[in-house]
């Protein structure tokens, strides 16, 4: 019995499904996020169902994890390093869980709105370097937030160095969360000031609600990306 010839696609065929240009498909091949195409005698690329599944998986991963992680995953899959690919996906899910836990912690603190620091905060003042390390940012970032009116750390009378009291650390934690959510510094300054002065939880509640919606969107995108990646792995024979 004669073997069936695999269905072949042109770059434009793959591009049309996703609303991208054929050149973009060729660029993805160049970058190693979809497998190299076979060439016809004329030199034209010939893609197969494996290329189509790779492109679906890559674009779904981009929506869920960003370009860098999506590229790392697909290049690892192409190299046969499934462990590295899945670890990259797992890191994205772990970060999403940490973001959810941060939202829970901030929401809990907002409900209380008291002068007493939440249990997770330090029991003493911290220098700017320690706060930056805690958040995973540079000290220059904290100074920028201070200039924007988000943070108001005191100065040590002797050294004139910034010192962050527990309440200041709480403000920095909140600012970090909202900044990662894509909010402008001017908006963050208003929200943090509401928490600081207990003038009302409405701005904070609205920000957290929007951030939860974004987390839900990311969760759904990750589910879609996992399904597309699994389809591609099956196409490869995994």
Widest beta sheet: strand line-up: 3-5-4
Proportion of strand residues = under 5%
Main sheet overview:
3 strands, antiparallel
Number of extended strands: 5
What's the SSE blueprint?
Layout: H1 11-18, H2 22-30, E1 38-39, E2 45-46, H3 49-65, H4 67-78, H5 82-112, E3 126-127, H6 128-135, H7 139-147, E4 154-155, E5 162-164, H8 166-180, H9 185-197, H10 202-236
Antiparallel strand pairs: 1-2, 3-5, 4-5
Q: Which tags fit this structure?
A:
238 residues, mainly alpha, two-stranded antiparallel sheet, 10 helices, three-stranded antiparallel beta sheet, elongated
Could you walk me through the main structural features you see in this protein, from its secondary elements to its overall organization?
- By secondary structure, the protein is mainly alpha-helical.
- Helices cover 66% and strands 5% of the residues.
- The protein has ten helices and five strands; from the N terminus they run H-H-E-E-H-H-H-E-H-H-E-E-H-H-H.
- The protein has a three-stranded antiparallel sheet with strand order 3-5-4. It has a two-stranded antiparallel ribbon with strand order 1-2.
- Helix 8 (166-180) packs antiparallel against helix 9 (185-197).
- The longest helix has 35 residues, at 202-236.
- It is elongated, with a radius of gyration of 24 Å.
- The model is unreliable at 112-119 (pLDDT under 50).
């Amino acid at each position: 019995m004669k073997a069936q010839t695999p269905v072949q696609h042109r770059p434009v065929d793959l591009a049309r499904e996703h609303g991208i240009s054929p050149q973009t498909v060729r660029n993805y091949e160049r970058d190693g996020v979809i497998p190299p195409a076979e060439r016809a005698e004329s030199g034209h690329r010939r893609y197969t169902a494996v290329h189509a599944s790779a492109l679906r998986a890559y674009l779904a991963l981009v929506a869920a994890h960003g370009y860098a992680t999506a590229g790392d995953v697909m290049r690892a899959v192409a190299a046969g390093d499934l462990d590295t690919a899945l670890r990259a996906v797992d890191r994205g899910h772990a970060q999403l869980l940490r973001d959810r836990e941060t939202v829970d912690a901030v929401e809990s603190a907002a409900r209380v709105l008291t002068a007493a620091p939440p249990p997770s905060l330090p029991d003493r003042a911290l220098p700017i370097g320690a706060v930056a390390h805690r958040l995973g940012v540079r000290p220059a970032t904290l100074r920028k937030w201070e200039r924007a009116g988000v943070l108001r750390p005191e100065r040590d009378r002797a050294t004139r160095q910034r010192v962050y009291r527990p309440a200041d650390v709480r403000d920095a934690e909140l600012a970090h969360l909202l900044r990662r959510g894509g909010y402008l510094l001017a908006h963050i300054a208003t929200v943090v000031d509401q928490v600081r002065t207990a003038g009302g939880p409405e701005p904070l509640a609205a920000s957290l609600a929007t951030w939860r919606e974004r987390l839900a969107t990311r969760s759904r995108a990750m589910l879609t990306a996992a399904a597309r990646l699994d389809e591609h792995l099956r196409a490869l024979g995994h």
